[in-house]
Every structure is written in C-alpha cells, then in structure tokens.
Design a protein that fits this description.
Layout: E1 2-6, E2 16-21, E3 24-30, E4 36-37, E5 49-54, E6 61-64, E7 75-79, H1 100-111, E8 116-119, H2 120-125, E9 141-145, E10 151-155, E11 163-166, E12 169-171, H3 176-179, E13 185-191, E14 211-216
Parallel strand pairs: 1-7, 11-14
Antiparallel strand pairs: 1-4, 2-3, 2-5, 5-6, 8-13, 9-10, 11-12, 13-14
Length: 219
C-alpha cells in the first residue's frame, strides 16, 4: 500500500502502479483521488522487486522494494513533472497514416459526426492554458472555475463531470484537467451524449453527462 504525490505533496490521481518481481508483472493498480494505491503479490525473494509508477505529465519512477521493510508501512512515492516538450508536428493526416489508437481515432473522425474530434495541432492552435480550454465555445459545454488547478467541464447542464478515459482506461471521479496536460496529448474525442460513443467506452454508470476520450503521445 502506498501514496503517490507530486513534488509539492499533493496526491496524484490516476497514476499507474505496477508490481514487478523478477521481470514479471504480478499486480497493477491506479491511484484514487487521494493518491493511494494497493498492490499485492507473492514474493519469493528471488529476483529484484520494484514498483513502476507512471502518470501522464510526470517522469516515470521505479522504486526498488526491500522486504520486509517496505511491507511495514505506507510508501510515499513522489513524482516530478516531466519537462515540457516542443509542440512537434502532427504527421498523421488521416487514418491510413496513423497507427495504434490514433488510427481508430482518425477512423471515427472520418466516419461520422456524432463526436467532436481534436487533433494535437487543432488543440495547440487554440493556445489553451488548460486542456479544458480547448472546449471553450463548443455548444452544449460550459466551463467554470475549480478550487484546484484547471477548470470544471460540464455538458448539457449536467451537474456531474463527464466520464474521462485515458488511453482506454476509465478515470473514476475526475476532471479533465486533473488527467492530462496539453504537452502529452495526441488527440481527444468528445461526446455530449452516449450516441456515437464507441461500444467499449460506454459506461452504465454515466448519468448522461458526456464522455471524453484522451489519447496521449506515449503509451
């Protein structure tokens, strides 16, 4: 059990934590809104044991575990923000030029208009301060101030946040600006209703408050 924070001590939600023993992944988890995680697995004492921690916008961490010391308390893992990268060039002009999840993004963008699709270059052209600023002026979407860094995104006057997926993983009870930074995003899809949402991203717990799919430049 442990907690992932940024350099200021604030908890980081949505960090991916993997328990690696002798080169094999035994368990993995994502941190909650309090930054906490829990992973477990049988450790034989043979081979190196580490926790690998990744979070969009932060440099990856690898923490070597020492037993039994590291089973006696709560681990605190501090993540440092990754250096900002230059904008780069969006070389994928269509589905045929893209690969991986970006190919699916371009295919959906090309095949129907039920979603709102943003390429990296389209987002950069808006010169947003936050990722949510990209949605400013989109009909049916309102932005409001947040007590934390970033803005609150609401769709169709719903009081709840839209469901956010990051690289195919559902980010529970989070705001868009808590999940991703513009430096890391390759593409984004926005659905005001369930209509048009790819079947694998339909969520029965979604109260009709919209869906946002975020795809990053690195897996």
């Amino acid at each position: 059990m442990g907690t992932v924070t940024d350099s200021s001590g604030a908890p980081l939600m949505g960090a991916e934590v993997r328990l690696i023993v002798a080169g094999a992944t035994l368990n993995e988890a994502r941190t909650g809104d309090d930054g906490r995680f829990f992973v477990s697995g049988e450790v034989t004492g043979k081979g190196r044991s580490t926790l690998q921690v990744r979070r969009v916008g932060f440099s990856s961490r690898e923490v070597e575990l020492v037993f039994p010391r590291d089973t006696m308390g709560v681990l605190i893992i501090v993540m440092n923000r990754s250096a900002a990268r230059l904008a780069g060039v969006d070389v994928a002009a269509d589905a045929e030029d893209a690969s991986g999840w970006l190919r699916e993004f371009y295919q959906r963008r090309k095949s129907h208009n039920l979603g709102i699709y943003f390429t990296r270059q389209e987002m950069i052209s808006k010169q947003p301060r936050y990722v949510s600023d990209v949605l400013r002026g989109v009909p049916g979407i309102t932005l409001s101030s947040s007590r934390r860094d970033g803005l609150l995104v609401r769709m169709r006057n719903c009081k709840y946040a839209p469901v956010v997926w990051l690289n195919g993983f559902r980010m529970a009870q989070t705001e868009l600006d808590d999940v991703a930074r513009l430096d890391d995003i390759a593409a984004m899809e926005v659905y005001l209703t369930n209509a048009g949402v790819p079947p694998e991203f339909l969520d029965r717990s979604n109260l009709g408050c919209g869906t946002i799919l975020v795809w990053t430049r690195e897996s």
